[in-house]
Design goal:
There is one protein chain. The chain has 242 residues and is an alpha/beta fold. It contains 9 helices and 8 strands. Helix 5 (113-117) links the parallel strand 2 and strand 3 (118-120).
Length: 242
């Protein structure tokens, strides 16, 4: 999700589904993004570093031959589902698709994986990979749309994930996070954690960030080595019982 601070979501009457979800799942109450604008956060949460990126330029300007969650899970072990992307591994903005919100498109060391496994979001979503990265389009991620737009989209999309065979088998965790805030709240953003093992209404006040989320993801998938700042990030598994 995009460009909203914790206080713009939690307690907001425009986000009834998300606030209901907070009582049914886990919520990190002190979670922070790494940078501004969008792109460096997407790169950070998938590779453990912003790699010095400070803009939202396309992959042609930021070809990254670095380790990422995608390079550690090759050959279909990872998958990206990008809403409104016109074709696989889209390298440029198109309509409501923004390439800066598609981090896999920036990594140049994935062989043909981006062309095969970075695909338009379909209904129902394909959760067959060990790791799946989902990006709503610019309306539904709250960037160009409203908080209500994003909340409504999540209210229809999240139940599809929770009804999936993968979630029913008890081996899937779902993170819902934002890339950054609105530049007015110190990058304090909401992050939800949903898994069969997470007690409903869990509130975690430890200071966490996207590197913590990456660390937790790698540990749950037993994928090493821990990438960049994920290696020293605060533990997210223990407090959420993941």
């Amino acid at each position: 999700m995009e460009n909203h601070a914790y206080g713009q979501i939690i307690g907001s009457s425009d986000a009834p589904y998300l606030n209901k979800l907070a009582g049914q799942a886990g919520l990190a109450t002190n979670f922070f993004a790494e940078a501004h604008p969008s792109l460096p956060n997407y790169i950070a949460m998938t590779s453990g570093s912003t790699h010095g990126i400070t803009d939202d330029n396309p992959p042609a300007d930021h070809p990254l031959s670095v380790s990422s969650i995608f390079s550690l899970l090759p050959g279909g072990g990872s998958r990206s589902l990008e809403e409104s992307m016109p074709a696989n591994c889209g390298q440029a903005d198109s309509g409501n698709y923004a390439v800066r919100h598609n981090p896999q498109a920036y990594y140049t060391n994935l062989g043909g994986d981006c062309a095969r496994y970075n695909v338009p979001l379909a209904d129902p979503p394909d959760l067959s990979a060990r790791f799946t990265f989902v990006t709503p389009n610019l309306i539904n991620d709250m960037h160009d749309g409203t908080v209500a737009d994003g909340d409504t989209w999540l209210s229809t999309f999240v139940p599809k994930l929770l009804a999936s065979a993968e979630y029913a088998a008890g081996r899937t965790a779902l993170f819902i996070t934002w890339d950054e805030d609105d530049d007015l709240s110190g990058n304090h953003i909401p992050t939800f954690v949903i898994a069969p093992s997470v007690a409903p209404g869990t509130l975690v006040s430890a200071t966490l960030n996207h590197y913590s989320m990456l660390r937790a993801t790698q540990q749950m998938l037993n994928v090493a080595p821990l990438l960049g700042s994920a290696a020293t990030a605060a533990d997210m598994r223990t407090p959420f019982n993941l």
